[in-house]
Amino acid sequence: MDWAILALLSAAIFGLVSILDKYIVDHLSRNTRSILFIMGVFGVLICIPFFIADPSYSSYSLRAIGAAVASGLIRGLSLAILFWVLRKEEVSRALPVTQTYPIFVAILAALFLNEQVGVLDWVAIVVIVAGAVLLSARRTPGALGGFLGSSFFLLTLSSLAVGASNFLGKDALSEMSTVQVFTINFFAVGVAILSVSTSRDSVREAWAIVRNRPPNLVLFAADTLMALVGSYLLFASFVAGPVSGASALNATRPLFVFIFVVVGSRLTPRLVYELLTPRILALKLTAIAMIVGGTAALVVR
């Protein structure tokens, strides 16, 4: 399957993950550490059967295994930073900054993987990133504009971490299979999340969430499985094509979130809803045009 299709499918699945994550946080618990703890446990447990089924990991070089592990740990660190910032800042102001990671991926790929990133490729990547940021951004009435202070630096660090994670994943794929790399990556993400979310209070509340309403396990299982599939498709796109281009297309997640929210607002307004004024709609359509145009330029290069 073409690398661009794989990257876009991954973005679409992660768009569903984003919506489900929001539902979980809004309806199950406002304590993000307890939510992260449950997701970390699921992430670690779901990888165990993959390790058992494939005993060949020890045959690979420490460099490849180290790159795969580092990719997951760094991605987990980026999530931890993002959730820490979201405790202090508005989601609508924080998330757009994290959509800049394809630029870092392109720089690393050009420097260390000898990927040929031409002028038109750079223009397409920047246009996609700008469209994703514009589509993610929202203006809250009465909110102050400007930078986010120290949080802006942390969010940029989170974005850089995602870029480094994609770069290291691509490097590990030069020796290991897609399933092996994404399994190690996903396991390491779970470990990283558990390392920053495990506490007496988070474990107690996580147990209460599961014990009082066992059906909640279905939501967490679905969230983890979708993230697993999305991760596999992302790494498969790295194998099939340039990591810089695949990362840029994967950054179109806000586009799919917007589409799913619009459809959900019509079909299930109690679960998913977003107010779309003419001004907001015009802004988002502009962003969509930028994303589609940049995507087309990358795909046909």
Report what the structure shows:
There is one protein chain. The chain has about 300 residues and is mainly α. It has one domain. The chain has 13 helices and no strands. Helix 2 (about 30-55) crosses helix 10 (about 215-240), helix 4 runs parallel beside helix 7 (about 150-170) and helix 6 (about 120-135) runs parallel beside helix 11 (about 245-250). The longest helix is centred in the first third of the chain and has 25 residues, at about 5-25. The relative contact order is 0.22. The model is unreliable at about 140-150 (pLDDT under 50).
First-to-last CA distance: 17 Å
Separate helix tally: 13
> Radius of gyration from the CA trace?
19 Å
**Unreliable residue runs:** 140-148
Strand content: under 5%
SS content category: mainly alpha
Helical proportion, percent range: over 70%
Dominant shape: globular
Give the SSE order as H and E letters.
Answer: HHHHHHHHHHHHH
Tally the structural domains.
1
Oligomer: single chain
Question: What is the number of strand segments?
Answer: 0
* Mean pLDDT score: 84
The biggest sheet amounts to:
none
In brief:
This protein has helices at 3-27, 32-53, 62-86, 91-98, 101-112, 119-136, 150-172, 178-197, 200-212, 216-240, 243-250, 253-267, 278-299.
